[in-house]
Write a structure and sequence with these properties.
279 residues, mainly alpha, 3-stranded parallel beta sheet
Length: 279
């Protein structure tokens, strides 16, 4: 610990209690372990099987990794929405995304998005990675790279629609606002696949085993269709034809090749925010 390492200790006797308490993570045996050892430890292995330590480690890393996935996904949504509304409000005096639409985006992305990304099960690949140090940031450089690339793409597309959408597609202002809202939501739906893998280029690997993820994506799309097509007064939207839906889907699906390309970009190991503290 004095060298900066994260230390775990296992034990079952009273004499192990000081080490279990001093360690970053203390694991005691549940059957043969003494009460003193159990009280001094952080985790009690109920079956006294040392192999359970690997299971604990695998699931612990999985939970940590899933939290990072959701944070990356959620920050992308928030950064894009904030910049788009701010730029549009300053330049044109109006915002493309209304309060109800932003509330809807946050509702489906916070709730359904969290469920989708939190249901990823642990893989053997997690065990090949080095442990995360106690001083390492939760938001890594890899996450910054991924989220900034996706947010930048969404900002460019949506601001283009905001200022040039009516002339490009030959639609009314109301339909153009609906195109912006629908494109923004579908970008998040497709980006949810990118968020499954922070580093791996193949974001679809193992997706067939996660039926809940696929189900949540389907539910999100159905709810968005209902929002656009049937809740016009509530959402302030207009109905879109098949061609306009295709355009929105096309803008959203571009996030897949962008996510694949940016993962070829190497990132420095030093935390991004540490550069802000340099003298």
């Amino acid at each position: 610990k004095q060298k900066g390492h994260v230390v775990a200790v296992t034990g079952d006797g009273t004499n192990d209690a000081p080490a279990l308490k001093e360690a970053d993570v203390g694991l005691s045996m549940g059957i043969q372990g003494t009460e003193v050892a159990k009280e001094s430890s952080d985790i009690v292995i109920l079956d006294d099987n040392f192999a359970s330590v690997a299971t604990v480690l695998r699931w612990g890393r999985c939970v940590y990794n899933n939290i990072q996935k959701f944070i990356q996904f959620q920050l992308t949504v928030n950064v894009a929405a904030l910049v788009i509304n701010f730029v549009a409000a300053v330049s044109a005096g109006e915002v493309p995304l209304t309060a109800v639409q932003l509330l809807w985006v946050n509702l489906i992305m916070d709730t359904l998005g969290a469920l989708a990304l939190a249901t990823e099960k642990p893989t053997e690949e997690l065990m090949t990675k080095p442990p995360v140090g106690r001083t390492e940031p939760l938001i890594t450089n890899i996450m910054w790279r991924n989220l900034l690339a996706q947010a930048l793409y969404q900002i460019i597309v949506l601001l283009t629609l905001q200022f040039k959408g009516e002339s490009i597609f030959g639609v009314t202002e109301k339909v153009n606002d609906t195109l912006i809202f629908n494109t923004f939501v579908l970008c998040q739906v497709f980006n949810e696949f990118n968020a499954r893998k922070l580093e791996k280029k193949n974001v679809f690997k193992g997706i067939h085993r996660n039926k809940l993820f696929l189900g949540i994506i389907a539910i999100t799309i159905v709810l968005q269709v209902v929002m656009v097509e049937f809740l016009k007064k509530f959402a302030g939207t207009e109905r879109l034809n098949w061609g306009q839906w295709g355009e929105c889907i096309g803008f959203g699906i571009v996030s897949w090749p962008i996510g694949w390309i940016v993962k070829w970009i190497p990132v420095p190991k030093r935390p991004f925010l540490s550069y802000l503290n340099m003298k």
